[in-house]
Write a structure and sequence with these properties.
four-stranded antiparallel beta sheet, alpha/beta, Aspartate Aminotransferase, domain 2, ten-stranded mixed beta sheet, binds pyridoxal-5'-phosphate
């Protein structure tokens, strides 16, 4: 077989083999296709039960969820939001949409916001005033921080929350990638800060096609998030609005997909774990390559698998990506760092070092739940023998 005859192995595609058809058919048969309907509420309540949050608010996507969560957290134009530079740009854009400025921070060994550098930044580069925490360099108020659980690795959110709460900085967790990742004490990622946001984009561990969820234990914040995502109606009979809201509510059809996908999540997590271990066993034998480690204080949903390339390996990141592509295997580099992106040129970045190294040496390799043992053989064969 020549490489061109081999089936393509994509990076991360959904698996839709449960009750999706049945639930969507029910939406169509009953004509509840839009934002009202039982599946939206069912998805929210089953999601709350799964992650252990008091409230869940379904949104059109994870980016919208982050934007609304930051607004609920009190982010206003001219304020600042602390974000990791190593994340998908949606985390940063959500703050930008509100007229806020990002301040970029470095990451730790698990690709997550570095809590030691955050401590250093807060202790030595900010000052506390009556209204809250102010950045000494820019004079702007820091209203929120967005830790991201990158690739399903749990960030050290409890420590960050301890540092930020007393300073009046709200914590909005970007848990877009970490559904199923749980801390050792049993708490799910996304429920430790003031608000948490999930994504159900097509490449996530469960999908609604597109979709997002805001979770919180605070009834006022949940109410405000629901109000903002449904056009901020103060009287929904007479259409009176005292604020500008958004049309960000998930539809019943998307929620039906979400309910069916959530039922399959335990199976998806088992498969992801099995695939990770299979990769790990093989990659251990290949000089110059490693798999990203799991933080010792949490599980990992293994949403995305991070291959780390040492300098002695026969390819660099670009070379390996090209070789895999030739073998009809998709891979993906880490997102280009956000402090270097054109829209954010001129924004403050603080001691960014590790993220730059990880960007150069990390490649994501196929991790879909429908990956077969033969697919893993094919990928690791290329990694081992080029
Ligand atoms: C870390 C992170 N934040 C935010 C998002 C945005 O989610 P969505 O694509 O649902 O808008 C994603 C994924 O797409 C993500 O990976």
């Amino acid at each position: 077989m020549t490489p061109s005859d081999l089936p393509y192995i994509p990076l991360s595609v959904p698996s839709v083999k449960g009750n999706e058809w049945e639930y969507i058919r029910e939406c169509l048969d009953t004509e509840w296709v839009s934002t009202a309907g039982t599946y939206v509420e069912r998805f929210e309540s089953e999601f709350s039960a799964y992650v252990g949050a008091d409230y869940s608010v379904a949104c059109v996507n994870g980016t919208a969820a982050l934007q609304v969560a930051l607004q609920v957290a009190g982010v206003k134009p001219g304020m600042e939001v602390l974000v990791p530079t190593l994340t998908f740009i949606a985390t940063v854009n959500a703050a930008h949409y509100l007229g806020a400025k990002p301040v970029f921070l470095d990451c730790d060994d698990f690709y997550n916001l570095d809590v030691d550098k955050l401590t250093e930044f807060l202790e030595n580069h900010t000052e506390q005033r009556e209204e809250g925490c102010f950045n000494k360099a820019t004079g702007r108020q820091i209203r929120a921080i967005v830790p991201v659980h990158v690739f399903g690795n749990a960030a050290r959110v409890q420590q960050m929350t301890d540092l930020c709460r007393s300073r009046g900085i709200r914590v909005v967790e970007d848990a877009a990638e970490s559904l199923g990742t749980v801390y050792q004490d049993g708490r799910h990622t996304g429920v430790i800060g003031d608000l948490g946001c999930f994504s159900f984009n097509g490449n996530k561990i469960i999908t609604c096609g597109g979709g997002g969820m805001i979770v919180t234990d605070c009834p006022e914040m949940a109410q405000k998030a629901r109000y903002l995502t449904t056009q901020a109606k103060d009287d929904d009979v007479r259409y009176v609005h005292e604020e500008v809201g958004y049309n960000f509510r998930l539809t019943n059809i998307q929620a039906a997909l979400g309910v069916a996908q959530l039922e399959q999540l335990p199976g998806f997590l088992q498969t992801k774990q099995r695939n990770y271990l299979a990769y790990k066993e093989r990659v251990r034998e290949i000089p110059g390559l490693n798999l990203g480690e799991v933080p010792p204080y949490a599980t990992n949903n293994h949403w995305m698998i991070a291959l780390q390339i040492e300098s002695g390996y026969r390819y660099d990141r670009e070379g390996l990506m090209a070789r895999l592509q030739e073998a009809r295997i998709q891979s993906r580099p880490v997102w280009y760092l956000n402090h270097l992106q054109k829209p954010y040129a001129g924004c403050q970045s603080f001691q960014i070092e590790k993220a730059s190294g990880l960007l150069q040496t990390t490649l994501n390799i196929p991790c879909s739940t429908n990956l077969s043992p033969e697919d893993i053989d094919r990928v690791t064969e290329v990694l081992a023998h080029g």
